[in-house]
Design a protein that fits this description.
Chain A: This is Putative heme-copper oxidase subunit II. Chain A: Keywords: Copper, Electron transport, Membrane, Metal-binding, Transmembrane, Transmembrane helix, Transport. Chain A: It comes from Nitrosotalea devaniterrae. Chain A: Belongs to the cytochrome c oxidase subunit 2 family. The complex is a heterodimer of chains A (140) and B (513). Chain A has 140 residues and is of the alpha+beta class. Chain A has one helix at 5-32; strands at 40-47, 50-54, 60-62, 64-68, 73-79, 84-88, 93-97, 103-107, 113-119, 132-137. The radius of gyration of chain A is 20 Å and the shape is globular. By secondary structure, chain B is mostly helical. Chain B has a single domain, classed as Up-down Bundle (Cytochrome C Oxidase, Chain A). Chain B has helices at 11-15, 20-48, 61-95, 104-124, 136-140, 145-173, 186-217, 231-265, 272-285, 301-312, 314-329, 338-361, 363-369, 373-403, 409-435, 450-483, 508-511. In chain B, helix 9 packs antiparallel against helix 11 (314-329) and helix 15 (409-435) runs antiparallel to helix 16. The longest helix of chain B is centred in the first third of the chain and has 35 residues, at 61-95. Chain B starts with 10 loop residues before the first helix and ends with a helix. In chain B, 58% of the residues are buried. The chains are: A alpha+beta (140), B mainly alpha (513). Chains A and B meet through helix 1, strand 7 and strand 9 of A and helix 3, helix 5, helix 9, helix 10 and helix 11 of B.
Chain lengths: 140, 513
Amino acid sequence: MGHDTAEWVFIGVVIAILVYVGVDSWIVQKEVEEVPADAETIKVTGQQWFWSFEHADGTKEISTLHLKKGHAYNFEIYSKDVMHSFNIPDWVVFEDAVPGHVNHAWFAPDQTGEFPIQCREYCGLLHYNMRGSLIVEDTP
Amino acid sequence: MVLELKKPRPVWQIMFSTHHTDVGLLYTITGLAFLFMAGVLAMMIRTHLFFPGQGVLISDSVTFNRIFTVHGLTMLFLFALPVANGVGNYLVPLMVRYKDMAYPKLNAIAFWMNPVGGVLLWLGFSDTSWVSYAPYSVIRAPGPAADMMIFGLKILGISSILSSINFVVTILKCKHPDLPLRKVPLFAWSMMTVSLMTIVAMPSYAAALIMLLTDRLGVSGFFNPSMGGDPIAYLHLFWFTFHPEVYIFLLPSIGMMYEIIPRFSRKPLFSQGSGVFAFVMLGLIGFASWGHHMYSTGMDFTTKVVFMIGTLAAVPASGMHVFNFLATMWGGRIRFAAPMKFAVGGIALFFSAGAGGVLNSAMPLDFISHGTYWVVGHMHLFLTGTIAFGFVGMVYYMFPLITGRMYSEKLANIHFIGMLWGSVQVFYTQHLLGLEGMPRRIYDYPAEYTSWTQLNQIATIGAWILGASFVAFLINLIYYSAKGKEANMDDPFGLGGKYYYPHQAKNPHHIGY
């Protein structure tokens, strides 16, 4: 039963790294989940196999979402049939669309351009093609 | 124990035998056969993804979806579990100094459920993905494929509970009275840990499968939101079984490395106590982290933190195993025969897989990696890089003990280099694909994403190397078990007289050195 110093040092270093990872993710996640008060709500609905969006003023869009640079947006994510996952990889927007649940994710784009939107939870036949695009425009 | 194949017997005598070595042989051969079958599916998936665009090899997405589903189910339930049980059947009774498993007939029954379950999975060829998340598997998955999958998994689940009961009783009740539990060799400890985990974890999935079936029949609505059910309930039931199941797949492989590494380092194990402690810790902590598969389902902050801590807590125990292996090898006169190569390669990949796992468990990073190819690479580094490496090493190790002949070391070398090279190339590249945002389980990807195309091509070439290396393994298994040169049964690997092989253990005090 040969425990010795080397093993304790090894375990200690491992635990120190883990504590660092844990504490740092706690801090970052806390920050990430703090939704700004002025965030505009966008309703996102996933269904086999496309995304539809509804802006706060009632404008509806399918597959392509137009947003303004410099604003914060809070997505309310719904699903009509099976589980999907709403994902804008370039902005690390990622939350499952679960039927019967409402999920949230927020972001504030600070760059204009076109970014892909995709589904990241297997949802059947055309899961691979459940793609859309986000267009961030530079309008004041 | 050994040499059953040296004295030829009619195959039905082996098939209807209840002796632990015969059942072990059946388990191992079945597991390896399914490994090759599922491997062919993996090659089809990777080859299909070589070019963006449809119709490369697989002409429609539903076939692709069925292929990755059956690939996953087969590798997990028909390769990883049976091979662990096969080696366990061979070695556990010897390690605890008993004549057979505690319940030989139950043992044979548990084995014979495997081919039945396998036939159901393969004839059904379901498209639900191996996790079969509700409500897709309830309201959209085509039958009878999904129903056959449910029945197949049900049978395999019962089989794994029966064999677990058998291992626990064999180790705890049939152990030689002179052999204290703490001195039982670590491979037997690993089998006991995973058996206890199976008994605790499996019922939750068994219940979920029945609920899924009645939901599909329309008589209940546990997971169907339109009938007042909740899909998240399925996820909890599923992952409560399958996060511990990750360790159930992993620990036997670690146990096999404990069997191989001290012998081929020609040194006593660094610490039996720390190995036992780490197994028990993993067995307990494995149950505290299932929620990290569900961070993005709308879980609240506190729950996420709890599951993150539970996940991180499993890392020091895994680290203790790695340390134990390194400290055992340190200063040893290592003989790099095939079993040792695979064990050492497995440890290296285990370490990298574990490091990637720490990143997954960190909540903010999980939102980047979850559901992407990062996860595919991560879990394949465990399943291929650690589990299959340990199993393959053990198969080489037991090869002379079972067949009385030696495999070809040259072919084993080709197999090892190809498997290590291939694993690194395909699975590390998949991590990068994940960071580029490529989702899992997609049939096709847009051709304008050149980085996806390039990385997919690198990964596919890696997969071909990995697949080709298994041809060497197949030749070793088939040709050299019949025509290989006779092994020196006193010391097949030429380690020198002081080092015992499991089949030579006569005295309980010799087993753990």
